[in-house]
Amino acid sequence: MDSPQYQELGLVSQEQQQIDLETVRATWKFLAGLSSNLTLVGPCLFSNLLGLLNVVLNILCRKLLPIGRLETVGMVLASIFAVLYALCALWAYGRDIADEIRVDDADRTMIPLTEEEMQRQQLLRLLQENQGKKKSSAKDVFTNTRPLWHPPGARGIYGGAAIAQSLAAAMRTVPSEFAVHSMHCYFVLAGDSEIPILYHVERVRDGRSFITRTVQARQRGRPIFTTTLSFSRANSGGKKKLEHATSMPDVTLPDDSSADVKRRLYNAGGGPFESHKLGTVNRDSSKPEDKRIRRCMRARGNISEAGGHHAHLSALAYVTDSYFIGTVSRVHDIPRFASPAELKAVLNALKNPSDLDDDEISRAFKELKEEEAAELRRRLEGALSKAEDPKNKHKHKEVGMMVSLDHSIYFHNPWAFRADEWMVTEMESPWAGEGRGLVLQNIWSKDGTLIATCTQEGVVRLKQDEPPRSKI
Question: Which architecture does CATH list for 138-235+248-462?
Answer without folding.
Answer: Beta Barrel (2.40)
